[in-house]
Write a structure and sequence with these properties.
The chain has a 5-stranded parallel beta sheet with strand order 2-1-3-4-5, covered by helices on one side. α1 links the parallel β1 and β2. By secondary structure, the protein is α/β, with parallel strands linked by helices. It has 5 helices and 5 strands. It folds into 2 domains: 80 residues, Rossmann fold (3-Layer(aba) Sandwich); 47 residues, no CATH class.
């Protein structure tokens, strides 16, 4: 059985490729069986009666009219883990920035001028600001 999936935003081709070949994916499909959305606000838009499910590619469902869809028996779900790696990277970067004095060190290095001997003396005199926490 062929299922029609309407996309309201740019959805990753890599993700869409995981759907069975029997799914027809379009951004302007008439009478879709399901809708895939990222950031499109759906509260004021007409949602066809043919829709059985709405999937959010991301965290949260605040852009989907949950109550109205629940009243119609439409399943609403999300895929919040897609950005987990980016969140982990930001946490690690924040920990490094907070404990290793990265910004003061960058400012210090950006202000260095002179020949090799002068630079060596400036670095030795100022490197204590880069020690971070113990």
């Amino acid at each position: 059985m062929t299922r029609k999936i309407q996309t309201l935003n740019a959805i990753s081709k890599k993700g869409l490729s995981r759907l069975p070949e029997s799914y027809v994916i379009s951004n302007d499909g008439a009478e879709p069986d399901a809708i895939l959305v990222r950031s499109q606000v759906m509260h004021e838009m007409p949602i066809p009666a043919s829709v059985l499910a709405i999937g959010r590619a991301g965290a949260g469902t605040n852009n989907i009219p949950i109550k109205a869809m629940s009243d119609r028996g439409v399943v609403v779900f999300n895929a919040p883990g897609a950005n987990a790696n980016a969140v982990k990277e930001l946490v690690i970067a924040g920990m490094l920035i907070g404990t290793r004095n990265i910004f003061p060190a960058l400012n210090f290095v950006g202000g260095l001028h002179g020949d090799d001997e002068s630079l060596h003396k400036q670095v030795e005199a100022g490197k204590s600001i880069m020690s971070g926490t113990s």
